[in-house]
What we know:
This protein has two domains: 2-54, no CATH class; 82-298, no CATH class. It is 71% helix and 2% strand. Strands 1-2 form a two-stranded antiparallel ribbon. It is mainly alpha-helical. Strand 1 and strand 2 form a beta hairpin.
Amino acid sequence: MTLVFSEKLKEFASLAQQHEGAGETEQAIEQWNGAMRLLPSDSAQHETIRRRITDLVAAQAAKPSAKPVKLEGPAWRRGLASVGAVLLLALGKLKFLLLGLTKLGTLASMFAFFGWYWGRYGWPLAAGLVISIYIHEMGHVMEIKRLGISASAPVFIPGIGALVMLRQHVDDPVIDARIGLAGPVWGGLAALAAFVVYLVTKSPIWAAIAQLAAFINLFNLVPVWTLDGSRAFHALARNGRLMIAGACIALAYVTSEKLLLLIAAVAAYRAFQPVVAQSDRRTLATFAVLLATLAGLAAVHPGL
């Protein structure tokens, strides 16, 4: 029994090192996660592998992107090229987004959720709400998959929202924060896309969808219970949490969005609870950008 267990660990470690040598970071993380699941959480080997995974995630995040191409020509042409780049990126993610719809539980619960809201607000707003929440949840799934962690497909709960269940415990606060904020990032992009459609069509329903989607994602940033904001706070020290509180107060003054005051109050309260020694800069920056973007979109009024 012990011999089989030991051989399996060696196999995971060997494959992980091969992937690292080939520059295949995601595959390496997946193998290291497999090895970590076989070890007691309080063992030295578990801690060593956990740190290795953290280093790989950080190294992947720090990789420089491709050098930007300098575009020549009139502004309209540069704008068209930018729109084309965004569309290509969206198409690249479309295949992944469609994968969630192959799960019977996701599809059935999504239709139940859609029907529940259709009867109250009409099908256009219900459809926009369902799609934006689905994109939010698939943002979590995408990050979880990238980290090689096992999780369920999204499940919708009428009148409440949707959720993705992790099938293993995440000990690292930075990784937990990455997973938590991935949902609002994708959900925020969905709200931003709806707002762009509103600007093009001038149809109030798209402004309403953008506002509602932004509000839902902003609510998820309240750092309490198991909401995404609370998971992000796991990677923030006292100074980072107080900075978030201050940013919320400033944004509330600019946008008049009252939900920001709730986030500020909870953030200030949690600043004096046990925290990590040092804030993760990427988590802090992502949280701040999300607050500004979502608060601005949530302040949009369909009557504009």
